[in-house]
Every structure is written in C-alpha cells, then in structure tokens.
Amino acid sequence: MIEMQDVTKKYPNGIMAANGLNILINQGEFVFVVGPSGAGKTTFIKMIYREEKPTTGKIIVNGVNLSSLKNREIPHLRRNVGVVFQDFKLLPTLTVFENVAFALEVIEHHPKDIKKRVMEVLALVGLKHKVRMLPSELSGGEQQRVSIARSIVNKPKVVIADEPTGNLDPETSWEIMSLLDEINTQGTTVIMATHNREIVNTMKHRVIAIENGRVVRDEQQGEYGYES
C-alpha cells in the first residue's frame, strides 16, 4: 500500500527530517510512528499525503508515484488517503453533517448519495444525533469523531492520523483508538504518529521508530520504547 525507497527530505534551513527511509507498509496494517519531538514523524506523515514532497527518493501510495505527481492530481490522491489531525481542522461555520458532506460535495457526488453515506459514517462514529450541531457545540472527543468521519467518508484505502489523541483526555483517547481500530478491521490501512506510550504499549500493533530522520526500529507488535 505504501512504499518509501531511499527517501530524504531536507528543508531550506538545513534540517534533514528524513534521511534514507526505506519502508514497506501493506494493505490493512495498523502502524504506529513514534520518536522524540523533532525526529521527523510529522514530515513522514505529510509526505504520504503529499503535503510535503521528498527531496530525493520515491514514495508510492496505492500504486501512485508521489514524486512525479502533478499538483492538479493531488486532490485525486487524497480521495484514497484520509487524514485526521490533532486539532481537528473542522470548518467552524458548518454543521457536523456539512463538515463531513463537504468532502463528497467537492467531487460532485449526487446529493442523495451524499446524505446516505454521511449518515452511515456518522452512525459509525456515534454522532447521528448531532448532525445539526456546530463544532463549537461539541466536546473535543466529539469533534475528533467528526474529523474521523470526514476522513473515511470517501472510503479511503489509507487513514493517516497525526497525534489524533493529543488534545484529549485518557478516556476519550481510548474511545478514538477503538474507533480507529474498528476502521482498520474493515480493511483500511491506518498509520498513526503518537507520543502516547500507554496506547502503543497496550494495542501491540507494528511500531516504526524514527530518530533524526532515520528508522531506528521497526517491530511487529512493538512497544513505545521512550520515556514519557
């Protein structure tokens, strides 16, 4: 599903955020990406959905070579890659329904199909009863559920989550992880950058550890491996 071949990313300020990455992630895997602050985790995540472009090397996502992808083709890529952010990134003036529907409206789905699909994913995340509410009327956990619903409404092959529990209390964090696990069991590849030791150590998924832009550890059923 995702392959990186000798990938480097050097920013204009000289920081080498990725340094010779060679990684293969198969369809249906759940992968935690861990490492100290500034290690290169966010750059790693951003390169998968072409928010950042590698300096050298090749990245292939769902058969598409991102290195040669034209800017006009990026929206099509992102139909197959859902993204969940730490700060939710919901549109504040749109309702729960409208935030999730927006992803389908921009690719001109039929309104009847949009309504059906949006209600399906809102049922999955447990928010069918809050379709008319604005983000400001929701708790942090509910906002993150809307963000997840939006990320999967297009039925993407991959969901990328960058610190999705970073702003949430422990109980709500576990609710979000249960939801991501359920999405994964349905066949969606999930890649999640996190600093949450308890979540990583409890769930026992694959762990890729990055330090100074390099992969220093890649373990099936791995552990967090850093001090909290």
Automatic annotation (TrEMBL):
Q: Topology in the membrane?
A: Peripheral membrane protein
SUPFAM superfamilies, per database record: P-loop containing nucleoside triphosphate hydrolases
Q: List GO BP terms, alphabetically.
A: cell division
List residues of the ABC transporter domain: 2-228
Indicate whether Membrane appears among the record's keywords: yes
Q: Which UniProt keywords apply?
A: ATP-binding, Cell cycle, Cell division, Cell membrane, Membrane, Nucleotide-binding
Question: Where does it live in the cell?
Answer: Cell membrane
> Pfam families under this entry?
ABC_tran
Keyword Methyltransferase listed: no
Q: Which SMART domains match?
A: AAA (SM00382)
GO MF, one term, reads:
ATP binding
Q: How does it assemble?
A: Homodimer. Forms a membrane-associated complex with FtsX.
Q: What does this protein do?
A: Part of the ABC transporter FtsEX involved in cellular division.
Q: Give the matching PANTHER family.
A: CELL DIVISION ATP-BINDING PROTEIN FTSE, IMPORT ATP-BINDING PROTEIN
**Official protein name in the record:** Cell division ATP-binding protein FtsE
